[in-house]
Fold this protein.
Amino acid sequence: MPKIKSIHHVAVVVQDMEKSLSFWRDALGMELHELRDVPAEKSQVAFLPLNDAEIELVMPTTDDSGIAKYLTKRGEGMHHICLEVDNISEMLAQLKSKNVRLINDEVRKANDGKQYAFIHPESTGGVLVELYQI
Ligand code: CO
């Protein structure tokens, strides 16, 4: 059976990265490891690691991306929780067998080689869940 190993990251969608960092970095005192533009996702992402997990702040950089539409519709807030799994293909098969609604039916591959897929909030209690296999 595939196994969930850890909470890999929690992603928060923000309107204004500097304003958001004034809370997460400056007020809470968390370390900003990296602030990066991700043109493929039309967003800017801040990574604030904490032990073996991290907080990711995601700010859309255009008006037409999925994340920009999410921000317009729902405002700032929790976007998704990412769980690391030891075998993502087996996990997707297991979820399908249990009639869990998936956003990605097949495993997707990021530029850095990690594999991921999203599970629809309808099946999770209203939280978008991302699965990662490193
Ligand atoms: Co994520």
